[in-house]
Amino acid sequence: MSKKLLHIIYVLIASNIYYYNLNAQNTLNENITQIPFKVYKTIDDTLSIHNIIKSDSLFRSSKYFTEKTRPKDIYWIKIDFDKELETLKTDSIWFLKPSNYAHASIFYTENSILVEKKFGLFDGSEKINSTSYINKIPFIHNSLIKNRFLYLKIRRLRFSDRVIDWKFYYTSQNLNHSLQNYHFQKDISPPIRRHIFTGICLVMFVLTFSFFITSRNFEFLFYSLYILWLFIYLNGPLLISNNIIFDGYNIITHWFFQIAQVLINLCYVYFVSFYLATKKDYPALNRIIKYIIYTLVIIIIIDSSFLYFKYFEAAIYIMNIQRLIMTIFGIGGMVYLLLTAKNHLAYFIVAGSFLFLIGTLGLFFTKAYDYMMAGATLEIIIFALGLAYKIQQEHKEKLLFERESFINNCKALRAQLNPHFIFNSLGSIQHLIVFEKKEAALKYLSKFSHLMRTLLENSIETNIVLSDEINLLHQYLELEALRFDASFEYAIHIDDTINADAEEVPMLIIQPFIENAILYGLLNKKEADKKLNICFRKEKNHIICEVDDNGIGRSAAKSIKSPYKKLTKSRGLELTEKRLQKLHRSEEKNIEIIDKMDTYGIPIGTRVIIKIQTE
């Protein structure tokens, strides 16, 4: 109930604010009067106001000027207050409201003397102190030339428009205060949108630049710079009005924001290049991007030169060429990526670029920066999502690569282990033949060939199920028992806690420990009681295997000269240790060797505990 009440209150307040602003705007519109004017166009900057006043016949209606303005043209405006003279007598001070021009002067009389007052942006006569700054030039009834006219001298340098679209208004002193209050309220609404845009830009700039510092991935660098320049360009009036980057608007400020447009595009194409890895995945697009980059750098140099030498018309043309190039590139690039996309990354670029293009077109047709700001905000969010998606994909690829690397390393180590095992087995066959145990040799060879077949069948697999591993161990132990005339007993136990048909282990991971137990522990024992026990059990995410023998122990084995003792370090054990290290993701010890002793401290065998980490 309370939520519903709050919602109703919110709607009522919002509606009242909306209708208040709407009524205020309508009232202001009704009391701001548009004034008729005539125009005289010339390129002669030496003409004085006295010459112009005498040349009344040169002025024509604004409807005749359908062509776009050019920076070299000078426009003299004659504003006629003939039908407003009675109204002008009702207040002491009035305010003329022209548009913002690069160079502009107003001419009026003061004590019967012609006076010129400059109000152009490049003239530095008045600072911009509002995000919705509009010129307001005060005048009084008695300041009209010939008690009827005000003259303006105007040059349009920053961009081109049509004189036919120009409008001039005037308002009273009281209404000007109302107008200031209205624009103050109007200034509060755009900053809400600007603050959202600024907040998104700030967060994304800090995040992406931080990512660049830590990862050194250049797509993050150019994306952060793209956001920075976009923020500066779209928040230009706010930054200027608060003296954050410039103290007023002048030709340097104009140059800076001209270059900012190019830098936005330059950072954008660099970002696309690194983000999509165009050099590898889109070579045709990569070549075009290179040409675009060279072109934009050249445009920066040329535009800076034009503005330095005050060739404003050429500067306008070069910026229009830059916009045309980027529009063609943007549309063509989106179509190309839609047709040839190699992954989902391309769709993020297409979606973000499309929304930004829509916002730019909105600015072009309506002259309202809110459209471009909305498009830029959506583009920034989509590109950020695209970067997050790319990070996720790269992380997945890294994990996959690490897994493949791990599997290949295990295969390489196992490939080294298999020759070791085969060599030992062939040595055993040779031993039987030398001692003329032909029947045993044939039986051994049959079992050996069967074991080799099993090994070859599983050679592609890195892991095998535990039941198959145990079967291989049975075959191996049968071979060793046959080789040594069944001089030892062995048993393999599987605990109830483990499902041997479900758990996987690396193939022949236990065999080297069993081999060592037989050769060094059991065969050197003089007593007949020679036993080998192998147990498997499950503990959390590990399979625990214990290889337990009742042989002579390690210390005694080292001092005995045995025909089975190797002069070199056991290669099988070394390789198995490496395989186990590959399996374990922690520094936890995975092999533990226990020397068993009786109550008198005499060795009675060895127990080896192997921990195999499961998935």
Describe the structure concisely for a colleague.
Helix content is 57%, strand content 16%. By secondary structure, the protein is an alpha+beta fold.
Description:
By secondary structure, the protein is of the alpha+beta class. It has helices at 2-31, 49-54, 85-88, 173-215, 218-234, 236-241, 251-276, 278-281, 283-308, 312-340, 345-366, 369-434, 438-457, 466-483, 511-522, 554-559, 571-583, and strands spanning 33-34, 37-42, 60-61, 74-80, 94-97, 103-110, 113-118, 137-139, 149-155, 169-172, 463-465, 489-494, 504-506, 531-539, 542-549, 591-597, 603-613. The strands form four sheets. The protein has a six-stranded antiparallel sheet with strand order 3-2-4-9-6-7, with no helix packed on it. A hairpin with a 2-residue loop joins strand 6 (103-110) and strand 7 (113-118). Helix 5 runs antiparallel to helix 7, helix 5 (218-234) runs antiparallel to helix 12 (369-434) and helix 7 runs antiparallel to helix 9. The longest helix has 66 residues, at 369-434.
